[in-house]
Amino acid sequence: MTTVALAVTDGMLHFELALACEVFGADMSGVVDPWYRFSVCGPSAVRLGRVQLEPDHGLDRLPCADTVIVPGWADVDQDPPAELIEAVRAAHEAGARVVSLCTGAFVLAAAGLLDGKRATTHWAHAQELAERHPEVTVDPDVLYVDNGSVLTSAGKAAAMDLCLHLVRLDHGSSIANTLARRLVVPPHRDGGQAQFVTTPVPAPDNHPLADLFPWAMQRLDHPLTVEDLARQARMSARNLGRHFRSVTGTTPLQWLHSQRIRHAQELLETTDDTVDTIAAATGMGTATTLRRHFNRTVGVSPDTYRRTFRSRTRPGPNDGGQHHRRES
Predict the structure, then answer these.
(1) What is the per-residue pLDDT for 307?
(2) What is the CA 67 to chain-centroid distance, rounded?
């Protein structure tokens, strides 16, 4: 029987911890036998916000497990406890498969388990992970990364994607699909977490491009060029590129492309416009061009994105035309 140990200390996130408990601590005796032998390992009583958790064993039991799971770490600005880092490293050295959920990747990185490897974490903290651990190749666009003995997931619900992936590896697709149905979640999701990331316009400030951003945003349906932007900003194309790098971290055309994609996402979520109409409204020209760039950037097709993130439903005959926001 495969043993799974959930490593917990003060400062873990509830959501990812609960997901791991639901998956590996589930009663699947009527579907598959043997299932996982699941335990929670931590130092005495563990405080998780308003919740206090009583572990089954101490952290010294982690090296005895086949799989060790590290939930999300709440405060990424704070170093994880040394005893947790040492226990996770010892488990990996003992041959355990070590898995991080969301910001649990910071614990694995601190233990040196991600050195020279590709990894992911919540998109909002991906840059921080990359800067703090330059020896790790951080991919902010995927739902999870499987390096064999070390696996990492992106933020929040992506933890479920990785947990089901583990079940699929250990018990096959049929069992993973059965568990997913019980949990009322998709057994597999298309695309990566890029589809969940907003690309905001930099906040208005006194920088030289402050007036250019809203001007360009109102003309996304126009075939804007770098020369058009430079002319509007009253500077040379070279000077424009330098300011764009400083303010946005990217080039004028890359920024413009991101805004077109973001606007397409907004229209897919909030309107019934066809893909052809949205392509014209975002300056993509044709539906074929929009689909190609959208899929490359977001990781899913416009149609899939609309089905997933549709923010309003059609009004029913008795609801007075009121729109209801769907959970996504």
Answers:
(1) 83
(2) 22
- Residue 85: CB atoms within 10 Å: 20
What does the block give as tokens for 179?
A: 């568990």
Long-range contacts of 32-35 (CB under 8 A, 24+ apart): 32/171, 32/175, 34/1, 34/2, 35/1
Q: CA-CA distance, 218 to 282, in Å (whole number)?
A: 10
Question: Taking 70 as the threshold, does the pLDDT of residue 280 lie above it?
Answer: yes
Written as one string, the DSSP assignment of 53-107 is: E--SB-GGGGGG-SEEEE--BS-TTSPPPHHHHHHHHHHHHTT-EEEE-GGGHHH
The pLDDT value given to residue 49: 75
Question: With 60 as the cut, is the pLDDT of residue 222 above it?
Answer: yes
pLDDT of residue 205: 57
Distance CA 76, CA 17 (A): 16
- Tell me the C-alpha distance between 290 and 222, whole Å: 15
Long-range contacts of range 20-23, CB-CB < 8 Å, 24 or more positions apart?
A: 20/69, 20/71, 20/101, 20/159, 20/163, 22/183, 23/160, 23/163, 23/164, 23/166, 23/167, 23/179, 23/183
Cα–Cα dist 314/214, whole Å? 31
77: pLDDT strictly greater than 80: yes
- Is 191's pLDDT higher than 60? yes
The torsion angles phi and psi of 49, rounded to 5 degrees, stand at 65, -120
Model pTM score: 0.67
Query: Is the distance from CB of 18 to CB of 70 less than 8 angstroms?
Result: no
Tokens 């089954």 belong to: 56
Average pLDDT, whole number, for the chain? Answer: 86
The pLDDT value given to residue 197: 61
- Residue 250: CB atoms within 10 A of its CB come to 14
